[in-house]
Amino acid sequence: MIDDKLHIPIQKDIGEYEQKLFGDMSIRTCVCLAGGFATAVLVALASWLWLAIDPSDMTFPIMLATLPFWLAGFWKPHGMPFERFLPLVARHHMAKRHYEFTPSHRCGTDMPLAPEPKKLTRKERKRTYRKGAELYEPAEEA
């Protein structure tokens, strides 16, 4: 008897809820779908009336004209609606990307970043070739 009841999933996070208008499509999706159909009809009429080309020969240009509406309605890049994603991408591509870095330890002087290494004498070079040279510390001798 318990299994005969209707089960309805409950949305856990109310922030993720989108109001559905028709079937599983939100209001935004329905508006973009209507815009895509309207664009297809307008391009087909323009090709038939002004260009005297049969709309069946213009299927690819008609599809290209409706593509922005289909993308805006159904594509969710990075889980965001298209109207939130588009300004972020535009701001990213219009932003200044070149930043000049000046190290703070140089303080505008012409000092080299690292001092030149000390030239080793013959005796010091010979010590580095011996077994256990990695344990050699010149600071201990001084």
TrEMBL record:
Residues 112-142 are annotated as: Disordered. Residues 120-130 have a biased composition (Basic residues). Keywords: Membrane, Transmembrane, Transmembrane helix. InterPro entries: Uncharacterised_PrgI (IPR024414). The chain crosses the membrane at residues 30-52, 58-75. It comes from the Bacteria. It holds the Pfam family PrgI. This is PrgI family protein. It comes from Gordonibacter urolithinfaciens.
